[in-house]
Specification:
Structural class: mainly alpha
Oligomer: single chain
Helix content: 55-70%
Distance between the termini: 25 Å
Shape: elongated
Number of strands: 9
Radius of gyration: 37 Å
Strand content: 5-15%
Strand order of the largest sheet: 3-4-2-5
């Protein structure tokens, strides 16, 4: 081993001498190679933003998910258009207008699914009511049939108020007619017009004798956009077209709101959140790193040389990634952040040692030789240990991190080569003047504070041990937040909409899915699942077949005979002048004032009071203002009526429905060509709660291992990620420990390095618990970087301690300690700004890295010197 060390040092000295001798040629070759690598990378690297490719396809749940995708590909990467309105009428009218707009054909939208636009669904709508509800509807329509017929002939304010006048006449004659719901709606419409607030009467509720019960009514349209995964935003073009179609539908006149969500939309907005402000963040990070390096190195030329070395190494690493991997994914793209965080350390340690030697009157050539030899061995050890940490992720099932580990591991060797080649050449060429002698090459701390870990070493060790025990107890409570929605910007439209849907079991997009083989298997499985307490309902193809059809069809036939005389749309009168509208309102108000029913009907009395005030206001208005007000009132009361009458006419054409009658657009979404029946399992609880999600998945998996769907993918993926990182982190730690024991001359030095590193890990883990900062899919990537920084810092300090410890034996008063701090600060400065990202996951990564680096730095600068203090006393 000693012979290998001597041989290695001699080879390194010969190499550095060669680099200095041919420094111009070395720099030219580096520049030409970097330009070529940059050109190759820009023209050949791809981006795979499909999150399904991040984990190994060999995992059992991945196989189930792929099988599900094969059976029902139309459920993948959809944009869910959520139409919201205050009444079901408005929601349905808006959804139908949107469906017609989307159906015009668009290259970027390959599929549109809205079941209520299908003729068979519209005709069968009454069959989906239970028998009691249908009979109540029939009775209600029978009671209002004479008045409804008159209104349908003249769908204007004139026809409306004529109808109500007839109804009041009948009530005065003793007939029992309930017009209170309509009167309340009209009264609300009048006050809304007066207050300039939007409102529409729900004729669907009135016809069914219902009161509005929900705060919002929703309709859903599922779009299949065309995706291009070679682009950073695969669905951007399609979303742009979708928004254009929404604008062209002019839904503001209907009073509906439209939001977009769904898997494709969530992924799109997440990517936008990740990349938003990236240019500013990178520029700010570069500025912060440059300032910290200038303060730490004390030389602009050294900063320039370090940055050029860093950028060159990054370009070469990107070129390797392009050649070895080809397509970066959402995880492996982080190699650049990791490289900057670790690669800059090499240059900083080298340059600070070089500066220290120059300040001690050493010749520049000799200073470069000595810096290379002095830091070369520690940099080599850092490269090996950090690369081991990254390579440990390669055999895991987390393909995204495996690729990241390969790229970053090789990147560490690239960084070493560039640092020991280009940096000496640049320093040899730069006309660097002798730097001013620093008061202390180490940390700018008062002597007592700087020597504290040495003078109070015993107290530091025991305090660290006690805190480690307490921290270990807290660290047992660390958790992993596997809810991917919590990683995204909570202000994103898709996230807000998705969470709103999740809060209601009837609308939850997160559902369990089982693909049953054949109808018998589907029925048997459905019966078993419906008995589980975590299951609200199970939906399958035959839910589109209404029950008790003969009895319901008989009721519908009676309704059809009763309403046979309703005029068709072409027979409807809708022409009315402003004067006629005003006369209709005024005459109806006079009619209300004459009826004795005002004394017994409080709703009618209130309407008369508000309508009188409205008429008085109309009289004081100008012609144009009066026309606008009356038109607004007409729209508020009658705009939804034609759609409901048309829906009623279509539903009265109902016929018996069987599976064979269902259109292929529905059948294909529930039964595959391979006779696979899709079962959608609705949860009882809100799956935004991690505990509820785990209960839902695990309880169903006990009954049927074929369960798949978003909750399963989310849960199983998180378990796979946690397992992969735990496995890789333990392997990396073990291999690094073994490597240090083998290569370090003093075997106890491995313990000296690993002890504060282990304590730092425990302290960081406990801090995540105390600060409620759970691990997630994003910030868990910080672990290899924290491991690498910790090991590197320990190696540099131990190497300096063994090779060039000052006479005062205070390791913190050396350029090495200064380099450790500057390196940590540059990493925090470059990566810590991620904490301010709009993307919650990225922000959590920045926070965890900043916390972990700070804790690791403290442990290496306080605990490690206190351990070494024991040797100082024995020497």
């Amino acid at each position: 081993m000693r012979l290998l060390r001597k041989t290695g040092l001699q080879l390194l000295k010969n190499w550095i001498d060669l680099v200095q001798k041919y420094r111009v040629a070395v720099i030219l070759v580096a520049v030409i190679s970097a330009v070529s690598a940059f050109h190759y990378t820009v023209n050949n690297i791809g981006m795979d933003s499909d999150t399904k490719d991040l984990l190994s396809e060999d995992l059992q749940w991945q196989k189930l998910d792929r099988a599900y995708e094969r059976h029902f590909p139309q459920y993948l990467d959809n944009v869910l258009v959520v139409v919201e309105a205050d009444t079901p009428d408005q929601a349905m009218d808006a959804a139908r207008a949107l469906y017609d707009e989307f159906g015009r054909g668009e290259d970027s939208i390959s599929g549109v699914y809205y079941p209520y636009a299908l003729e068979i669904i519209r005709q069968s709508s009454l069959l989906f009511l239970n028998t009691g509800e249908l009979q109540d509807l029939a009775d209600n329509l029978a009671a209002i049939q004479p008045f409804l017929s008159k209104l349908t002939e003249d769908q204007t304010l004139r026809g409306l108020f004529d109808m109500l006048s007839d109804a009041i006449d009948a009530m005065e004659d003793g007939e029992e007619i309930d017009i209170e719901p309509l009167l309340r709606q009209i009264n609300t419409a009048i006050t809304s017009v007066e207050d300039n607030k939007p409102f529409r009467v729900s004729w669907q509720h009135l016809m069914r004798g219902e009161e509005t019960e929900k705060d919002v009514y929703r309709e859903y349209i599922v779009l299949q956009p065309e995706l291009n995964y070679s682009k950073l935003f695969p669905v951007a073009t399609a979303i742009e077209k979708i928004r254009e179609r929404i604008k062209q539908a002019h839904l503001s006149g209907i009073g509906a709101r439209v939001n977009l969500t769904g898997s494709a939309m969530l992924a799109h907005e997440e990517m936008k959140s990740v990349t938003r402000g990236t240019g500013i963040a990178l520029g700010l990070a570069l500025l912060v790193v440059t300032v910290i390096m200038w303060l730490g190195l004390g030389s602009v030329r050294l900063v320039i040389a370090s940055l050029l070395t860093l950028i060159t190494g990054l370009i070469f690493t990107a070129g390797f990634a392009t050649a070895a991997i080809g397509n970066l994914n959402l995880i492996s793209v982080a190699f650049a952040v990791l490289y900057i965080g670790l690669g800059v350390d090499f240059a900083i340690h080298y340059c600070l040692r070089y500066r220290e030697l120059l300040a001690n009157d050493m010749d520049k050539h000799d200073a470069i030789d000595e810096s290379s030899l002095n830091t070369g061995r520690s940099l080599f050890l850092c490269t090996m240990t950090t690369a081991i940490g990254f390579f440990a992720f390669v055999p895991t099932d987390y393909d995204g991190v495996a690729e990241l580990g390969l790229i970053s591991g090789v990147g560490m060797f690239i960084s070493l080569i560039v640092t020991m080649t280009l940096l000496p050449a640049l320093l040899s060429l730069l006309p660097l003047k002798k730097p001013v002698q620093m008061r202390s090459p180490g940390l700018p701390l008062p002597r007592r504070i700087g020597a504290f870990p040495l003078t109070h070493a015993r107290s530091v060790r025991w305090t660290a041990l006690l805190l480690s025990v307490l921290a270990l107890a807290a660290a047992t409570q660390i958790r992993f937040d596997y809810n991917t929605l919590n990683l995204q910007n909570a202000d994103n439209e898709s996230v807000i909409t998705f969470k709103s849907l999740l809060s209601d079991p009837d609308t939850s997009p997160w559902r369990g899915v089982i693909v049953a083989q054949g109808r018998d298997d589907a029925q048997r499985t459905m019966t078993q699942l419906e008995a589980l307490p975590v299951v609200e309902d199970v939906i399958w193809l035959e839910d589109f077949i209404p029950g008790n059809q003969p009895e319901k069809l008989a009721i519908i036939e009676e309704m059809n005979l009763l309403l046979f005389g309703l005029p068709q749309p072409g027979e409807v009168s809708s022409n009315i002048t402003t004067g006629e509208q005003y006369d209709a309102v005024r005459e109806f108000n006079d009619r209300l004032g004459q009826t004795p029913l005002l004394e017994t009907e409080p709703v009618m009395n209130r309407l008369h009071r508000d309508l009188s005030a409205y008429v008085d206001n109309l009289e004081q208005m100008g012609a144009d203002e009066r026309a606008r007000s009356l038109e607004t009132l007409s729209e508020s009361i009658l705009a939804s009526l034609p759609g409901r009458l048309q829906t009623l006419r279509e539903s009265l054409q109902a016929v018996a429905v069987s599976v064979e009658d269902l259109p292929q657009q529905i059948v294909r979404r529930w039964r595959s060509d391979e006779d696979g029946y899709l079962l959608e399992i609705m949860p009882v609880e809100n799956l935004m709660d991690n505990g509820a999600m785990r209960r839902f998945v695990k309880e169903i998996q006990k009954r049927d291992e074929r369960l798949i769907g978003a909750p399963v993918v989310t849960l199983e993926a998180s378990d796979a990620v946690v397992g992969a990182f735990a496995q890789a982190f333990l392997y990396a730690f073990a291999v690094i420990a073994l490597f240090l024991f083998i290569v370090l001359k003093h075997k106890r030095d491995a313990i000296y390095i690993l002890t504060p590193l282990t304590m730092a890990a425990v302290f960081t883990a406990s801090a995540t618990v105390l600060l409620d900062m759970p691990f997630n899919f994003a910030n868990i990537i910080a672990l290899p970087l924290l491991l690498g920084i910790g090991v590197d810092s320990g190696i540099h300090i131990l190497h300096r301690y063994r090779t060039a410890l000052p006479a005062h034996k205070n390791i913190l008063a050396t350029s090495t300690a200064r380099a450790v701090v500057v390196s940590a600060l540059t990493t925090m400065g470059s990566i810590g700004n991620l904490a301010f990202s709009h993307h919650t996951g990225t922000a959590s990564m920045g926070k965890l890295l900043t916390l972990g680096i700070a804790v690791t730095l403290i442990c290496m600068l306080i605990i490690l010197p206190s351990l070494l203090a024991r040797e100082n006393r024995s020497q």
